[in-house]
TrEMBL record:
Protein name: GTPase Era
InterPro entries hit by this protein: G_ERA_dom, GTP-bd, GTPase_Era-like, KH_dom-like_a/b, KH_dom_type_2, KH_sf_prok-type, P-loop_NTPase, Small_GTP-bd
Organism of origin: Sulfitobacter albidus
Subunit structure: Monomer.
Boundaries of every KH type-2 domain copy: 204-281
Ligand binding (GTP): 12-19, 59-63, 123-126
Family annotation (CDD domains): Era, KH-II_Era
Region (G4): 123-126
Its job: An essential GTPase that binds both GDP and GTP, with rapid nucleotide exchange. Plays a role in 16S rRNA processing and 30S ribosomal subunit biogenesis and possibly also in cell cycle regulation and energy metabolism.
GO cellular component: cytosol; plasma membrane
Amino acid sequence: MSTRAGFVALIGEPNAGKSTLLNRMVGAKVSIVTHKVQTTRARIRGVAMEGDSQIVFVDTPGLFQPRRRLDRAMVAAAWGGASDADVIVLLIEAHRGVTEGVERILEGLADVGQGRRVALAINKIDRVEAPRLLALVQKMNERFTFAETFMISAERGHGCDDLRRWLAAEVPEGPWLYPEDQIADLPMRMIAAEMTREKLTLRLHQELPYQMTVETENWEERKDGSARIDQVIYVMRDGHKGIVLGHKGETIKAVSKASREELTEFLGRRVHLFLQVKVRPGWLEEKERYSEMGLEFRDGDG
């Protein structure tokens, strides 16, 4: 039997459920999931196996109206991920329907979707009644010629198996791109940083998460099989540092504990995690920070 392998880009507005769907497809927590919008900064790839097919998911940052350099770099990464893919899946939210953001994505798809199979996945279907859902399917398919339409709940798993089977048949014939047991091509250092950033994002609900980044500065394999991981949390100003540390260091301790526990489970061994908070007023304009996030600094120009 011949094998198949290819790249599938998940695109959509922030919070449409792309990261949740990626994690559901791959069967492991690769892309961070939070209630905050715009949390996926880099093109995180998760690898899913379905029969003799290997599906490599490119989870792109949400497509939105960019305002700052970081925003522009994220949107460029999203469209870049779509234009590099063999198949594109547009994810929209059933209860929100055709928003302004979806309209803009449809305009972009007219160009990027040329010569590619594009599927529509309507997510969070449990939030609307059937007649409204069918009207949305009709409206979207009038706007763009989708190869297939799926109604899913990424959170609950409804319809996800059908989508994965369809994608498995759509990716091109060819050898697998990754070893069968490899679930993500992101370096472990970045996955570790993303886990800590997720915990910070969940604890700090205001604007701060967008003005903060986490980097894994050092990773040391120890003789007893455990790993020592040193991470730096960069914030924009002194006031932010106090917020991240919390009263008597309570916030940073809670974040460190939650992140260490998740890393221990993910790696299947003991982890010693050490967090530092540093103030770097201009980190949003530093090329190195973008490289750490897997983004192109120059994509933020304009």
